[in-house]
Design goal:
about 220 residues; alpha/beta; Rossmann fold; five-stranded parallel sheet; three-stranded antiparallel sheet; 9 helices; about 50% helix; about 15% strand
Length: about 220
């Protein structure tokens, strides 16, 4: 059977993880959340007290002892850091900002690049991130750039965080979203951008189910 790779890129809070997971399940593919990989490295750097404004400090946390694993348990992707399940710990706003910072460091990207490539080489998958269609899987069968307005994305992220019991303010979530957009799109290495041959899907005015349907239909009509 031919291996099919779907690349879904887009800014923070666009719903890539939820939508990509649903799309992968519908297509019978595995789902690979590359952002979770960077969040795990970022969490490790935070836990080690690294100076996130210093590339050298971040690189120093990429020791031989660091082991980042992506496992599929009952069909769900789980992230492990040195053997510990950190799938919940990497979903905080702090881990998100740390992920954005460490992802700008070339050595971190090199550290995770082969893992991502090998997963796609051996599995039909939906892989999401910031540079999947432009760098990681430039020859993906289908490329999608999934986006929404900063305000729409902030509202969704705020709801998600408050439902988890986190004490956050909408204006702070929006400010973090705008900063993350700027950082991701202006970094020197593999900045966030739409691949020339990617299909733009804007979900600002769509609910979750409508967004999922849009992406699934887009994939099916382009493979």
């Amino acid at each position: 059977m031919k291996i099919i790779n779907v690349a879904i890129d887009g800014p923070a809070g666009a719903g890539k993880s939820t939508i990509s997971r649903k799309a992968a399940a519908e297509m019978g593919y595995i789902y690979i959340d590359t952002g979770a990989l960077y969040r795990t490295v970022g969490l490790n750097a935070m836990r080690q007290g690294a100076d996130l404004d210093s590339d050298d400090s971040i690189i120093a946390t990429l020791t031989d002892e660091l082991k980042v694993e992506l496992r599929f348990i009952d069909g769900e992707q789980r992230m492990f850091l040195n053997g510990d399940d950190v799938s919940a710990d990497i979903r905080t706003p702090e881990a998100s900002m740390a992920a954005s910072r460490v992802s700008a460091v070339p050595r971190v990207r090199e550290y995770l690049f082969d893992l991502q490539k090998n997963l796609a080489k051996n599995n039909s998958c939906v892989m999401d991130g910031r540079d999947i269609g432009t760098v990681v899987l430039p020859d993906a069968d289908v490329k999608i750039f999934l986006t929404a307005s900063p305000e729409a994305r902030a509202e969704r992220r705020y709801k998600e965080l408050t439902e988890k019991g986190m004490d956050v303010k909408l204006e702070d979530v929006l400010a973090d979203m705008i900063k993350r957009d700027y950082d991701d799109s202006h970094r020197a290495i593999a900045p966030l951008k739409q691949a020339d041959d990617a299909i733009l899907c804007d979900t600002s005015e769509l609910n979750l189910e409508e967004s999922i349907d849009l992406i699934i239909n887009t994939i099916k009509s382009n493979i």
